[in-house]
Specification:
Blueprint lengths: L1 E5 L2 E8 L3 E6 L10 H7 L3 E6 L16 H15 L4 E6 L1 H12 L4 E7 L11 H4 L2 H9 L6 H4 L7 H11 L4 H7 L3 E7 L10 H5 L5 E6 L6 H4 L1 H13 L13 H7 L1
Parallel strand pairs: 3-4, 3-5, 5-6, 6-7, 7-8
Antiparallel strand pairs: 1-2, 2-4
Helix pairs in contact: 1-11, 2-3, 3-8
């Protein structure tokens, strides 16, 4: 287990591989651990980091740090502590919001972003996220299929206050407005049958800037990276292979994705 001390408290992270830095940010249920298959796939060409945000996994429980702003600050301080200057970001749920907000505040530090299950519209989050415990949410969102244990075993570590504070903060920001202001290449990934985050409408997606693109996993729920890891990891690899600054919309030209984005 690797840790750094930020603001006098422990932040846990793990790292695999060598190359350009790639950061994975977890969602409202679980921790860094469910990113392991994606980290392993990416580690062939990247140095893949995954860290636990304040109040999640093995990072410190510090209620005063649970705001979305402070989770963004955590990422900034973590990069400074490790001497990392520019990254690619992969976020999920809460992590997708933090990734988007980080890129908006520090555009020169982010090369590209892949966000999964981003609540793009007001009302797109299920009310059940606010009324359930982390363990109850894990039971609801993960089911019992193989490959979900990595997220399920971490759910009891989530501080419920960290979960609730992030959801309350989300009501005061507009991810869609952030997207409209970004110049960073961004790929949006959604599970078509996600019960927690309603995928955005085609009309809304069509109004996003040119550097944005969306891909839907037809049979996936809230965890596309676990429901279909081979497909997710292949998509991540294709996205990372694009030249810096290039729009991910060209991904739809590849035969393996054409069926999914028509």
């Amino acid at each position: 287990m690797s840790v750094v001390t930020l603001d006098g408290e422990i932040i846990h992270y793990e790292v695999l591989g060598r190359g350009r830095p790639l950061f994975f940010l977890h969602g409202w249920v679980g921790s860094w651990r469910y990113w392991v298959p994606a980290m392993q796939a990416a580690s062939m060409g990247y140095r893949a980091y995954a860290l636990d945000l304040w109040g999640f996994g093995d990072s410190a429980r510090r209620p005063g740090q649970y705001s979305l702003e402070n989770q963004v600050n955590l990422l900034d301080k973590f990069m400074e502590e490790l001497g990392i200057a520019r990254i690619a970001l992969v976020g999920h749920g809460l992590g997708s919001v933090v990734a988007l907000a980080f890129a908006a505040r520090f555009p020169k530090l982010v090369d590209r972003i892949l966000v999964t299950s981003l609540p793009l519209e007001p009302g797109s989050l299920s009310p059940r996220l606010r009324s359930s415990t982390p363990v109850e949410l894990a039971d609801w969102l993960l089911g019992r299929q193989p490959g979900m244990d990595a997220a399920r075993m971490e759910a009891p570590k989530v501080d419920p206050q960290a979960l609730q504070t992030s959801l309350e903060n989300l009501q005061s920001i507009n991810p869609l407005d952030i997207c409209q202001s970004l110049a960073t290449a961004c790929l949006l990934v959604y599970g078509q049958v996600d019960p927690a985050v309603q995928p955005p409408s085609p009309e809304l997606l069509a109004g996003l800037p040119e550097q944005f693109h969306s891909i839907f996993f037809d049979q996936a729920g809230h965890f596309p990276m676990l429901d279909d890891p081979a497909k997710f990891n292949r998509l991540l690899s294709d996205f990372l292979a694009l030249p810096s600054g290039e729009s991910p919309r060209q991904l739809q030209l590849k035969e393996e994705w054409k069926r999914r984005v028509r």
